[in-house]
Amino acid sequence: MASQQLLNRLDLLQKAETALSPSLDEAAETLVQTVVGGGKIMTCGDEAGYGAATEFTHKLVHVYQVERPPLPACLLTTQFASADDALYERQVQALGKPEDTLVCILGGQDSRVLTRAIYQAHSLQLPVIIIDNLLAKPAAAELWEQDVEICAPCDNPALVHELQITLVHCLCEAIDQQLFGTPGS
Question: How much is the pTM?
Answer without folding.
Answer: 0.90
